[in-house]
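Q: How would the structure tokens look for this protein?
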Amino acid sequence: MYSNNELKKDSAFYYYQKALITDNKNANNYYNFGNHYKKYKKYDLALEMYTKAIEVNPSLTQAYINSAIIYDVQKDLKKAIESVIIAIDLEPGDYSNNAFLASLYFDAMDYNNTILYTTKAIRLSTPESKDYGLLFKRGVSRQIVGEYQNALYDYLDIVKNYSANEKKQHADVFSNIGYCYMEDDQLEASLKYFKEAVTYKPEIDQLIGLFTVQYLLNDKVGSEKTISKVKTVEPKLKEGYKGIGKLEKEGYFYTKRHKEVLRKILN
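A: Here is the predicted structure in token form.
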């Protein structure tokens, strides 16, 4: 009760300590004390308490999860992943833990494990609790590892129920669909989605996809018009293909095949 009132947090600290003095063999006493420290961002102290809780009760799943949350905040993805894996070993059928692990793997750029655990989480979810953010991470991961058809299933599942406003907010999903269709040589479908993406958000990723597919469809007028717009939006591309390398350093992703096409267009 005191822990929920910031003005009384010192009183909460006193009673949590007293609980440990009274019963230091109760894992929940350490766990609750850890939650108190976590709430007020005293992360190292919280981790100490969770560690002690686990020593007393190695099956206390939530202590592993809360430890992982702190490791994630501290950008220690390796330890966060290790903690969640233990929790999942204890409770393999827990949806949220599998979803959490998938997100950690995604942040760690381990895309094969992202696919594995997003799939597990999705199987454990109900239709009512469908997480489109998780589905997007699986789609991106599948796209990066080259599973373009599977990525399309995820992306198309996401966009099918979008409202007009959501389409504007998530233009990146439409451009990702365009990239997947382009890699699969379905150029007309790719063109359709890139045009839609550019309508919602005429930014660099959408525009590069559009002029690439226009070039592949031998639309010289359209591709030159789009390239001109791209160079206005992103001055790095005035340097030609070197600009693509700079964009990749900023986190943009282009496949080997796409880069070969871009080299032809931009040099």
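The chain has 16 helices and no strands.

The CA atoms of residues 118 and 134 lie 6 Å apart.

Upvote if useful.
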